[in-house]
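Two proteins, back to back. First:
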Amino acid sequence: MNGYNLIAPYYLFFVKLVFGDLLFKAQTHFLTKDLDNQQILIVGGGRGELLSFCLSQYPTTRITYVESSSKMIELSEKRVSIQDQTRVDFQCKSIFEWDTSLTFDLVLLPFVLDLFSEINCLALLRKTKAILHEEGSLIVTDFSKNPAKFQKALVGLMYLLFNSVGATERSKLPEFYALFAAEQLSIFKEKKLGLGPYQDLVLTFQLTLC
C-alpha cells in the first residue's frame, strides 16, 4: 500500500479541515508525562505531528518511526530539530518487512488497524506484542463504529478515497475488541472522543499484555 505517497502533501490539510484537532487529541490522550518511555515505536505516523509531540513530551526518549510512505517520511523529517535528529530512527518500510532486536516501552498505532485486512491486523498486533516490553503499553487510536448516519457516511467516504489511491486493504472498520481478544491484549484504559456531529467518533485504547 503506497497510495499515501499520492495524498501525503494534502493529508494534514484534509484532516484539519474535516476533523480539526480531534484526531490529534485522541492520539495523544494517553501520552501523559508520567509514562516511563525509554524506547517508543510509532507505526504509520503520517506527516510527523505525533512524532513532534512525543519528542517534546519525552525529551530523553528514543523513537523508532516506521512508515511505508517515503513522502510521509520526508515530511516528518522536516519536523525534527537538529538536536533531536539522533533520537529518531526513520524506517521507510512496511511494518511487516521491518525487523528489530529492540524491545519497546510504548508502541503507537495511530489510525493504522483500519487500513489492513483482518489477517494483517492480527499479524500486526502479534508483531507488536513480540517487541513490547513486559510492562509496556500499546496505544491504538482509530475511528469508532457508531450507528450515526453522518459518521457512517464520513467513514465510508474516507474508505472510498483511500481505496481509490490504493492506500487501504479494506472497506470498513475492523472489529477492534475481537482483534484484541484474539491476540490476548488487555484493555487497560479506553476513551471515546468527539462532540456534536462527531460525538464519540474516535476511540483510543491503552492496551497491555495479558
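And the second protein:
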Amino acid sequence: MNLERYRKNFRQKVIPKYYSAKIHLLIFSAFEVASISISAKYIEWSWLSPLWIFLSIFWASTFLYFLHRFMLHRIVPGFAWAHKMHHWHHTFYQSENMEYDELNDVYMLLMPPWIQLIYFVLYLPFITWALSHLFPPVFVPHFIFALTVWYGLYELIHWIEHLSDKHMVMTFGWARKMKRHHRGHHHPKFKDARNFGIVEPTQDYLWGTKL
C-alpha cells in the first residue's frame, strides 16, 4: 500500500474540512486544566492522598489497557465504530512511518473531539455523582484528579510517540523508549496482541503482552 497516497485520500475524504488541530488542542487543554483545577480544589490533602491517587491511577491504567485491548482491537457489539476508527489510526500510522506529516493529522491521533466533550461534560460529572454514593467523600476528588491527569498524559504521550525521531523531545530516553514500545504495537504482526500500554508499559508486563 502506498501510505503517502492513502494519507492524502484520507485527509480529503475523512478529516472534515472545518477541522482545526489548533482549536482541537486548545479546547482539550482548557477542559483538562479546568477539570484538574476544580478537582484539586476539593481535595482534602492528607498523608493518605498519595495512596488514593496511586490507586486511582492504577485503576485508570488498567481500565485503559483493557479498553484498548478488547474494545479497540476487537469488534464488540454496539461499538464496531470504535474498532473502525482505531483501524484507521493503525492504517494511517504504520510501524515504518509513525510520524504525522502535518498538524491536522492529529485528527487520527487524539481522541475525537466529540468523545473528549462527552468525557468532560457528561462522564466526569456522572462518575463524580456515582462515586459520591459508593465511597467516602474524601476519596472522590482524589479519583477525579488522578483520572483527569492520567487522561491528559494518555493524549500527550501518545502524541509524543508519533513525533519525529529528530524532535527535541526525543533527546529524552523515556520518550525514545515509549516510541519503540508503541512502534511495536503498530507492527502488523503484533498490533492485536502486544504493547497495548500507551502511557507506560506496566500493564503489558502484568498481563503478558509486552513485546
